[in-house]
Design goal:
With about 190 residues, the protein is of the alpha+beta class. It has one domain: Jelly Rolls, CATH 2.60.120.10. It contains four helices and eleven strands. A seven-stranded antiparallel beta sheet has the order 1-9-6-11-4-3-2. The chain has a four-stranded antiparallel beta sheet with strand order 5-10-7-8. A hairpin with a 2-residue loop joins β7 and β8. The longest helix is centred in the first third of the chain and has 14 residues.
Length: about 190
């Protein structure tokens, strides 16, 4: 389950944020292409990563049509200023550990998956994760977190996840591109 925690439209000029995004890092096809270090150096192929990809492939099953898999990721200091993360972290009162924006074009999807987590850090289960749709939603744009599908979202309405390792996905069977933001971190005392 995800819980609505408020709106962050006043934290940034989100229209300006979107207008300054470039192509980003393209994720497409089967999960081995998502973590290809040639297109995304943040994903070196390690034994843990191999296990992650294999479990994702197994979860999706043999009948999954990977031809519709396409989304684009944007990361701080690579595609947008780290000041964005700072402003959002201040608003949420967290120390950030990860943040990204992503784009899902019409007819495309980011399949159901669980993000890889460093579970060797005994604090990982204290991480908080938040997500929201940045732009005006339109029919057919669906964000899935756990067993809940969020549709026709108000721009910048923020949702806190129950756990950072929930299954999640985004699909767009509508006519307009969807932009989302995701940030996680530890709550400050």
């Amino acid at each position: 389950m995800s819980n609505y925690i408020g709106n962050c439209s006043h934290v940034l000029d989100w229209n300006n944020f979107l207008s300054n995004l470039d192509q980003g890092i393209t994720k497409f096809g089967d999960p081995w292409k998502w973590v290809n270090p040639l297109s995304d150096p943040n994903f070196p192929i390690t034994p843990d990563m191999k296990s992650y990809v294999n479990s994702t492939v197994e979860r999706l099953g043999h009948n999954f049509n990977y031809s519709s898999t396409l989304w684009h990721i944007y990361r701080p200091n690579e595609h947008f200023a780290n000041e964005v993360v700072s402003a959002l972290s201040t608003h949420l009162n967290i120390t950030p550990t990860m943040a990204n924006a992503y784009r899902v074009e019409p007819g495309c999807n980011c399949p159901i998956h669980i993000d890889p987590q460093d579970k060797t850090d005994n604090r990982w289960n204290k991480l908080k994760r938040y997500t929201w749709q940045i732009n005006q939603s339109s029919i057919g744009q669906v964000l899935i977190i756990g067993n809940h599908a969020l549709h026709m979202l108000t721009p910048c309405d923020m949702y806190e996840w129950d756990s950072v390792d929930e299954l999640h996905a985004a699909t767009n069977c509508g006519p307009d591109t969807a932009y989302y933001f995701l940030i996680e971190g530890y709550l400050n005392d």
